[in-house]
């Protein structure tokens, strides 16, 4: 039975604690996760990677099983829907996990597939009208509810996979074949009201509702709308209770805020209103809530919370343009348990958002405003193509496709194209020639190993350089502790050298002398400024590409580049100042 | 008018000629009055030019081909 080896678990850089001799070790895992094995034939690596949080894994298992146990839709159709969600999100891990055995095409009816794709790509435009043709084809509401729950589950699993980046569970020779996404609609959904009519459930004797009243103060409409599926409600509430409520690693307020950020990023009016109400009840001021929902970057958050929300927002869908970076969270001081909790929280947030889009529940409270698909762009700092599989202006696109199909000659051409730039960037980080050569080779080999997961949401060069920078960072960190890459600049840099430079300073020294001075000055820069300057001024990346490579906001990247340039100016000033005129 | 500290934290886009008009006007108003910041802008632009033109981290002659050979040898072993 395939499973991730202990060695591979160790190599996951952000998991400092090894999986040790507890109920979570591989020897006991199959029996501990006995509900997953019948579904998947193994315990997927996605869950093994969360072994540090056994209650979270158990809650996720219960949710999966509660959705799979209902037979309104056959199990193979559900697998097909999960596979469809993975293809729409271009998530290779989940696609391999669910499409094993080739269930997708034959077992997922086109009508169901289309609602899955719409919920995944533009959930905020989903309306009762989207279910009309399925109803006309004889699908009962029970079946449609089952389908929507399955799509929401697919979102949960894809979110986890995008955060945790597990090894594949099964050998797969080809990368995920992405589904074309529909044109983005920018209109408000025209038909308000629930899409699915569920029979009401008496609440006074239903334990999950009591849990909700204890922890939220009321029973949100989202749960009432699923009244015909008590086992699912029970599992959802249990997941909420185990993942969101405990003040264990992240505080509950942090996790509820994170859900608010995600709800806004998903343009989910219902969830923004719900989260705002919950956070207000937990003591968060209304002005703060409004600011977090509108633009959390200006909400005066601590550096660590800012990193937490910025990274976790990337797990929303449509994705904000760059990949989630657990490394950044670790550098900002998060423990591996906190990173795991953030991923699990985001996964549950996307689950509930998708469910709400599909069911069309009416907000429990009057929303401050109605979010639309336009907000998908406004609320994110980056514009992302919705329906283009290729980044239009990526000159490597064709070669990448060929390399992903196993064409090694194409990969060799990519190595030749990027060899010089990768080497230059790494030389500026590491300094030593031998270390740079080794790191360059290692970066290309990592790229080869993971090219199947490259989803073309950024340019290939950005993705490759990101791998190279991470490789060099790990190499440096093995030598000595590094300052955090994610500190926000708080002090203004005060220049000391303020004498005029020569009008043509490059004429003052030979090229060899200039190169030597620049090299020494760059290598003396603190690491975070050095990397930013290298990408902008040596490797000539655009500001946006450099920011994406480092997982930073554009404004943070600009601040670092400016600080690095001012420091370089300080170092070089003494060599390039205007020569003093002899006294007359 | 902007202080020198404010100027120094805001002039990154100005260096790259991408500051929005309102900010650019405030920065230029400051530069009109502050010789020290004029020197800093001029010397920072020259710094960028020198660093950008530098060959200090270039891949040495034959090393490029040896990296390609080494990487592709290991790739072909794996595949």
Short description:
Chain A has 584 residues and is mainly alpha-helical.
Explained architecture:
The complex is a heterodimer of chains A (584) and B (79). With 584 residues, chain A is mainly α. Chain A has helices at residues 6-11, 26-32, 37-40, 45-48, 54-69, 75-88, 92-99, 104-107, 110-122, 132-136, 141-164, 207-215, 221-224, 230-244, 252-265, 269-281, 286-295, 303-313, 326-331, 336-359, 374-378, 397-404, 408-430, 433-450, 460-479, 511-524, 527-538, 543-550, 554-576. Chain A is globular. Chain B is built from five helices and no strands. Chain B is an all-alpha fold and 79 residues long. Helices cover 75% and strands 0% of the residues of chain B. The model of chain B has no long low-confidence stretch (mean pLDDT 90). Classes of the chains: A mainly alpha (584), B mainly alpha (79). The interface between A and B is large, with 57 and 41 residues.
